[in-house]
C-alpha cells in the first residue's frame, strides 16, 4: 500500500520534496482474511448441530412420533448435538481468549505436569476402556510455571487425540522429561496416523483429515490449533511424526524459566 503525500513546500509550482509512505499490509490483510474465514467456518460448524436439533425437536413436537424408543432416540440425539455445540463454543472461546491475551503472561502458578498427566488419564478411563486402549506413562517430576488451565488444555487435547484416533486395542505412550533448558512432552499412539500431505495442515483451525471421523469421535477441529497457541505462548515448539496405520507422535518442548 503506497501513500504519496505531496509536500506543500512548493517553489514556483514545483514540488521540492515529497513524502512517500510505503506500508506493508500483507500481514494485516492475511489476518483479516483468516478472521473472516474463521467466522465463516465457526458459523458453519455451529449450524450443523443447530439444524439437527431443530429437526428432531420439530419431529417430536408435531406428535407424529409416538414410538417410545424413537422418542428416546431423538432426545438422545438432541442431547449429543447440544454437547457438540457446547464443546465447539468452549474451544472457540478458548482460542479467542488465547489470541486476545497474546503477549500477556496471565496468572502463572507452578503446575506439576506428572500429576496433571495422571489426572487427565484417569478422566479418560471410560474412553480407554471402551476402546481397549492402554496407556503407559514414563514421567519425571517436572513443574512448569504456567496458567494451570492452559497446561490442562494442552495435555488433554494431545491425550484425547491419541485415544480418539487410535485403533481398538491400541496403546498410548506418554513421556515427560527434563532436558537442557526445558522440558519435553511426547504423546505417541498406535493409531490411524496422518497422511504425509495433511501433516503440515493439522494445526490449522478446523482442519481435519477426515471430517466424518472427527465428528463421530466428538472432535471440534480446534484442539491442535489451541495446543499450538499454548505452546507458542510459552515460547516452546511442537513437532509431529506420523505414519498411516502405524501411529502418531506429537512432541512438545517448553522452556523452563
Ligand atoms: P479434532 O477435534 O478433529 O480432533 P484437532 O485439531 O485436535 O481436531 O486435530 C485435527 C485433525 O488432526 C483431526 O481431525 C485428525 O484428523 C488429525 N489428528 C490429530 N491428532 C491425531 C492423532 N493422534 N492421530 C491421527 N490423526 C490425528
From TrEMBL:
Residues in Histidine kinase domain copies: 41-257
Full protein name: histidine kinase
Subcellular location: Membrane
Amino acid at each position: 500500500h503506497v501513500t504519496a503525500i505531496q509536500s506543500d513546500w512548493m517553489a514556483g509550482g514545483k514540488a521540492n520534496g515529497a513524502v512517500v509512505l510505503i506500508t506493508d499490509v500483507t500481514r494485516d490483510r492475511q489476518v483479516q482474511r483468516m478472521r473472516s474465514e474463521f467466522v465463516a467456518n465457526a458459523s458453519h460448524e455451529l449450524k450443523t448441530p443447530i439444524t439437527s436439533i431443530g429437526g428432531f425437536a420439530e419431529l417430536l413436537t408435531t406428535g407424529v412420533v409416538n414410538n417410545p424408543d424413537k422418542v428416546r432416540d431423538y432426545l438422545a440425539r438432541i442431547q449429543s448435538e447440544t454437547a457438540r455445540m457446547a464443546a465447539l463454543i468452549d474451544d472457540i472461546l478458548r482460542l479467542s481468549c488465547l489470541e486476545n491475551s497474546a503477549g500477556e503472561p496471565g496468572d502463572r502458578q507452578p503446575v506439576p505436569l506428572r500429576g496433571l498427566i495422571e489426572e487427565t488419564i484417569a478422566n479418560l478411563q471410560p474412553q480407554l476402556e471402551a476402546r481397549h486402549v492402554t496407556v503407559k506413562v514414563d514421567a519425571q517430576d517436572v513443574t512448569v510455571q504456567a496458567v494451570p488451565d492452559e497446561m490442562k488444555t494442552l495435555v488433554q487435547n494431545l491425550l484425547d487425540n491419541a485415544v480418539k484416533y487410535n485403533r481398538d486395542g491400541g496403546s498410548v505412550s506418554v513421556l515427560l522429561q527434563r532436558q537442557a533448558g526445558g522440558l519435553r512432552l511426547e504423546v505417541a499412539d498406535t493409531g490411524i496416523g496422518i497422511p504425509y500431505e495433511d501433516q503440515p495442515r493439522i494445526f490449522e483451525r478446523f482442519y481435519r483429515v477426515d471430517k466424518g471421523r472427527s465428528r463421530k469421535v466428538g472432535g471440534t477441529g480446534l484442539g491442535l490449533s489451541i495446543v499450538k497457541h499454548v505452546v507458542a505462548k510459552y515460547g516452546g515448539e511442537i513437532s509431529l511424526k506420523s505414519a498411516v496405520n502405524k501411529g502418531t507422535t506429537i512432541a512438545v518442548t517448553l522452556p523452563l524459566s
